[in-house]
Amino acid sequence: MKKLLLSVCVLLAVALPGSAQIFTNFAVTINGAQEVPANASPGVGGGLVTLDTNLNVLSFVGMSYSGLSANSTASHFHGPAGVGTNAAVLYNLSGNTTLGGTSGSYSGTVTLVAGGFEIRGQLIAVPEPGVLVLSAVGFGLLGLRALRRK
Question: Which of 9, 53, 61, 116 has the least CB density, counted as fewest CB within 10 Å?
Fold first, then answer.
């Protein structure tokens, strides 16, 4: 019984973190259909963007684009805005990609300080596994272990 109680305490200590999550991942797909108004550009792109909420920094993971119908001239984030809505430029990303070509990739980080194109995308949060689901699985495994010992 002491081992079971110890196992439950360890599980709770791991499953219930003491501080808030500091990283949020966003998946992004960029294409002409997401421009306002939408267009038939053959250009596409996408990747993953990670936001560090403690440092207020975005990091690009595998972000790239290709198939533009003309050479790129600018790269930036607009916002905040919902799907199908225009908004002002907030962050310039020109230093994170090479402009002047029809394809490229993003690298590095952008420090977020507030401040008609071919392709556009929305940042969509990537869900993390819920603590309750992980706890339920852990308690279920502990219950099975206790039943097997009887």
Answer: 116
Location of structure tokens 């501080």 = 19
Mean pLDDT over 80-89 rounds to: 82
Residue indicated by tokens 């599980």: 11
Q: Are 72 and 106 in contact (CB under 8 A)?
A: no
Give the model confidence (pLDDT) of 35-68 as tens digits: 888 899 999 999 888 888 888 888 888 889 999 9
Instruction: Report yes or no: 29 and 65 within 8 Å, Cβ to Cβ.
Output: no
Q: Which residues of 55-86 are buried (b: 16+ CB within 10 A; e: fewer)?
A: eeebbbeebbbeebeeebeebbbeeeeeeeee
Nearest 5°: phi and psi at 41?
-55, 140
Give the end-to-end CA distance of the chain in Å, rounded to a whole number. 11
